[in-house]
Design a protein that fits this description.
With 60 residues, the chain is mostly helical. The chain has helices spanning 2-21, 23-34, 38-59. The protein contains three helices and no strands. α1 packs across α2. The longest helix has 22 residues, at 38-59. The model has no long low-confidence stretch (mean pLDDT 93). This is DUF2065 domain-containing protein. The chain crosses the membrane at residues 40-59. Keywords: Membrane, Transmembrane, Transmembrane helix. InterPro entries: DUF2065 (IPR019201).
């Protein structure tokens, strides 16, 4: 459970870096994401899950 908490904390740190360091660029990227179709967003989500699981398997 401790590892899961650390992973969640690291994710929050990484997610917070973009709006902290470049709020204008983050806002522009977010507005472009809003223009994507549901299928495109699902594909991005699927690829994120696949890459994340692959990295987890490699690091075990």
């Amino acid at each position: 459970m401790e590892g899961l908490g650390l992973a969640l904390a690291l994710m929050l740190v990484v997610e917070g870096l973009m709006p902290l360091l470049g709020p204008g660029q983050w806002r522009a990227m977010f507005s472009r994401l809003l223009q994507l179709s549901d299928g495109q967003l699902r594909f991005i989500g699927l690829m994120s899950v696949v890459v994340g699981l692959g990295l987890m398997l490699l690091m075990r």
